[in-house]
Specification:
By secondary structure, the chain is of the alpha+beta class. It has 2 domains: 9-118, no CATH class; 143-286, no CATH class. Helices cover 32% and strands 20% of the residues. It has 10 helices and 10 strands. A 5-stranded mixed sheet has the order 1-5-4-3-2. A 5-stranded mixed sheet has the order 6-10-9-8-7. β7 (188-192) and β8 (195-202) form a beta hairpin. α2 (24-31) packs across α4 (56-71).
């Protein structure tokens, strides 16, 4: 990071606010004005991938990775501007893509404005991309703990054969499917509430071909001696959070890409911003985990 009095890291962090949020795009929008044409231009210049309606997944991706860049000091500065990479996005030819932010002098507005995106940028020094954080190691033999006894929730129809079984049987089936996938290393990194956790595919009906989409997926949080299971989701739902955990979208499993591509245009902004809304609401109401 270049020394200059114009933009201090402490100032940028103060403008960003807390990283402990499940609404990172709201955090980004408070930090800077992001013109939609620039967002669409960035999507057009980057290696082709499905960003969903109004490129909202790209917005979330930038919200998460911009936070990492500032926290890690992976930016450079000029006269009332600062420069950082658009996460690890690249053009079709492997050239990094950059973002340029400028101070906003309008009173009562966001402190920054995104003024330029692309592979060509006139910066005193080009920034490097942020490191993608890793999740805490999964302790061998850790107990799998369900936060809610009605773990299947609104997704019970996805596994109809379990829908009418006792809740204990449902919890045992989910726990067994998690353990089976963890033993085979099938878990994926998954951003959640400002840090990296995991999402685990649940093969509850067939395990003959694990390249096919699972019945459900389970976000898990590593605790000291246990794995906390907050909820279960449909296979396409965690895509935006999992996308931030890899350098290129094609590093995600083919089943996740296929599920996302088939559902992307039907996903609403609120579904993408927080794929676990009910559990988050319950935790806030109960004063629980998060």
């Amino acid at each position: 990071m270049i020394d200059a009095p114009m933009v201090e890291q402490s100032e940028l962090l103060a403008h960003l606010g807390s990283a402990l949020t499940n609404r990172p795009t709201e955090r980004l929008r408070r930090f800077a004005f992001i013109p939609q044409p620039l967002l669409e231009g960035l999507a057009g210049e980057a290696l082709n991938e499905t960003w969903g309606r109004d490129t909202y997944v790209l917005m979330k991706y930038l919200a998460i990775t911009l936070g990492w860049s500032i926290e890690q000091g992976r930016y450079t500065i000029g006269d009332e501007q600062f420069y950082l990479t658009a996460g690890t996005l690249q053009t079709r030819y492997g050239t990094p893509l950059y973002l340029v932010f400028e101070k906003n002098h309008l009173q009562g507005r966001q402190p920054w404005i995104l003024v330029h995106v692309g592979s060509q940028v006139a910066a005193p020094q080009l920034p490097s991309p942020p490191d993608i954080p890793t999740g805490a190691p999964i302790p061998p033999g850790a107990e799998i703990v369900m936060i809610h006894d009605h773990i299947l929730g609104n997704n019970a129809d996805r596994v109809a054969f379990l829908r009418d079984t006792p809740r204990v049987a449902q919890m045992c089936a989910v726990a067994g499917a998690i353990q089976w996938s963890l033993f085979r290393g099938l878990q994926l990194n998954y951003w959640y509430f400002g840090r990296m956790n995991y999402v685990v595919p649940l093969y509850l009906q067939s395990r003959e071909n694990i390249t096919l989409a699972p019945d459900l997926v389970a976000p898990i949080e590593v605790s000291e001696n246990s794995l906390l299971v907050r909820t279960v989701l449909l296979p396409h739902m965690p895509y935006a959070n999992a996308r931030a955990s890899v350098r290129r979208h094609d590093q995600l499993p083919a089943w996740m890409l296929d599920c996302w591509n088939s559902e992307a245009e039907r996903m609403q902004e609120t579904d993408i911003e927080n794929p676990e809304p009910q559990i988050a609401a319950d935790q806030i109401a109960d004063g629980g985990l998060r």
